[in-house]
Amino acid sequence: MITSQSSLRRSERSRRATLDAALELCTEKGYGRVTVEAIAARAGVSKKTIYRWWSSKGAVLLEAFVDAFVGATPFVDTGDIALDLRTHINSAVKLTSTPPYGPAYAGILSEMHYDDALAEAVQEQLVGPRFAAAEARLAKAQEQGQVPAGADLPLAVEMLYGPVYYRHVLRKPPQDEATVATLVDHVLRSLGAAPDGPRGALPGTVPRPASGDLS
C-alpha cells in the first residue's frame, strides 16, 4: 500500500512538472518551437512518460490550459446573472490574453485546424463542458425569473463567447471590463431579459461607453 501511494504521488509530480514545463517553454519560445523532447528535458521526465499520458505536445498544453481555465472561470451564482456573466467573461479574457496561458491557447487554436485529434479533445475537454456550464447558469437565471422561459440559451452562450474568440483569433486587443459589460448587456437584452431598477437597467449592468464596440 505504501509503495502504491508513493508511486501515485510521483506520477502526479511528474504530471504537474510536465504541464508547467510545457507552459514555460510555450511562453519563452512560442507554441511552434516547443517539442516533446524539450518538454521532457525541462520537466525531468522521459519522452516515454509523456507519450504514455499524452498523444502530442498539443494534448499536454491543452490539459494545462483546461486545468487553469476551469479553476479561474467558475460560474458562480450571486443571484445577479449580469454580474456573474461579467465576472466569468472577464476572467476568461484575462486568462486567454496573458502568459503563460495566452500563448498556449493561441497555439492550441491554430494547431487544432491541422490536428483532428486535438480538435476533438478541445471540444470534449474545453468547449463542450464550458458551454454546458454556461447554459446551466443561464437556466438557473430562468428559474430565478431573470431570463425568459423561451430564451435560446445555446445561442446566448455562442453570443457571449463569440467576440472573445474573434478578438483572440484576429489578435485584436482583448476586451476591457467596460466592453465586457456592454457585451453581457446586449446578450441579456437579446434574450428578452426583463429590465430591472429605476432606470430600466438589467441586474448588475454598468454604464457602457458610447462606442459600444463588441468586435
Q: Could you walk me through the main structural features you see in this protein, from its secondary elements to its overall organization?
A:
With 215 residues, this protein is an all-alpha fold. It folds into 2 domains: 2-55, Homeodomain-like (Arc Repressor Mutant, subunit A, Orthogonal Bundle), CATH 1.10.10.60; 62-190, Tetracycline Repressor, domain 2, CATH 1.10.357.10. The protein has helices spanning 2-29, 36-43, 47-53, 57-72, 81-97, 101-111, 116-143, 153-169, 177-190. The N and C termini lie far apart (56 Å). The model is unreliable at 1-8, 197-201 and 205-212 (pLDDT under 50).
Number of helices: 9
N- to C-terminal separation? 56 Å
In total, the number of domains comes to: 2
CATH class of the largest domain: Mainly Alpha
* Low-pLDDT sequence parts: 1-8, 197-201, 205-212
Major β-sheet annotation: none
Strand content: under 5%
The ordered H/E elements are: HHHHHHHHH
Pfam families: TetR_C_11, TetR_N
Region (Disordered): 194-215
Domain HTH tetR-type: 12-72
DNA-binding region: 35-54
Short description:
By secondary structure, the chain is mainly α. Helices cover 68% and strands 0% of the residues. The longest helix is centred in the N-terminal third of the chain and has 28 residues, at 2-29.
